[in-house]
Amino acid sequence: MNSKLLSSHNIQEPESSVLYIVGTPIGNLNDLSPRALNILKKVELIACEDTRQTKKILQKFDFKNNLISFNKHNYLSKIPKIINYLNASKSIALVSDAGMPLVCDPGEELVKDAKSKNIKIVCIPGPCAAISALVTSGMSSSKFTFEGFLPKKKSEREKILFEISKNEKTTIIFEAPHRLRKLLFELKVFCGGQREIQVSRELTKKFEEHIGDNIDKVIDFFDGREVIGEITIVIKGCNKKIKNIEFNQLELKKELHELVKAGLSLSSASKYLARKKNLTKKIVYNSY
C-alpha cells in the first residue's frame, strides 16, 4: 500500500458551502476517525439527530461547536435553514445518533434538496451496524439486502417478510430490543425454524454479543432474558434447491390461517386442505 494514502496530509480541511455526511461511532467512541474528528471540529455547524448524543463526542474529544437538531420530527422545517447556511458559504456536518447518516433517518431529504441546488456533498465514512453484523455472521456478504426497520402496518410487514423468506441473498434487519421476540416468531412463521440467522447487539461496546444459529435456537436463547441494546439481525438467504418447497409451505400456511380466520376449526381446515393438496392431515395441521 502506498504510504502516502496514510499520510496526515489527507486529513482535509472543511471547504465552504459543503455538506459533509459524517459517520460517527455506533458504540465505542474511539472508532471516530481522525478525518471525521477534524471535520466536526472545524465546520461552522453540526446538524445532529439528537444534540445530547452528539455532545458526548464533543465532550470525549474536548471541543465545542454549534449544534442544530435535525431529526424525523423537525427535518422539514430545518432543511431550508441548513440550505441557507450552505448558500452563505458555510460548511455543515450532518451526523446521526450512531453510524452513517441517511441509513434509517431523514437525512436523505436534506441531501436530495442540496444536490438539486448543486451544493457539494462529501461523505466522511465511518462505522455501520449493518455491515459490522454482516461480516461477523459468516453468511454470504457478496450480495445482500438491507431492509432497515420493518414497517409496523401488518400488510406491509408481511409482504416484506414473505420477500425475505424467498430471497436467496443475505438479509439485514434492524430491530428495537423490546420488539425482538415478536420479530423472531414472525421470521419462524415465514422462513421456518431451521433458517440460519444471527442476532447482534451492543456492537463495538464492552458487552458486544452475536447469537447465531437457526431461528428456533435463537428464540430459545432469548426466552426469559431481558434484551438490551439496539439489535441487528442477519438472515441467511433461501437455499435455491428448496426454494419452491419453502414457497409451497408458506402458501399452505397462509391458506390454513385464512380458513381458520374465516371460522373453520383447525381440524376441519386441515382436513380440507389435505384433500385439496393431496397431503396428509398431520402435515397440514402442523404447519399452522
Automatic annotation (TrEMBL):
**Which keywords does this Swiss-Prot/TrEMBL entry list?**
Cytoplasm, Methyltransferase, rRNA processing, S-adenosyl-L-methionine, Transferase
List locations, semicolon-separated.
Answer: Cytoplasm
One Pfam family, short name? TP_methylase
Instruction: Kindly list the GO CC terms recorded for this protein.
Output: cytoplasm
Annotated PROSITE patterns = RSMI
Indicate the principal place this protein occupies in or around the cell. cytoplasm
Q: Which reaction does it catalyse?
A: cytidine(1402) in 16S rRNA + S-adenosyl-L-methionine = 2'-O-methylcytidine(1402) in 16S rRNA + S-adenosyl-L-homocysteine + H(+)
Segments forming domain Tetrapyrrole methylase: 19-214
Supply one GO molecular-function term. rRNA (cytosine-2'-O-)-methyltransferase activity
Q: Which HAMAP family match?
A: 16SrRNA_methyltr_I
Q: What family is this protein classified in?
A: Belongs to the methyltransferase superfamily. RsmI family.
Which NCBIfam families does the entry mention?
A: 16S rRNA (cytidine(1402)-2'-O)-methyltransferase
What's the name of the protein?
Ribosomal RNA small subunit methyltransferase I
Q: Which organism is it from?
A: Prochlorococcus marinus (strain MIT 9301)
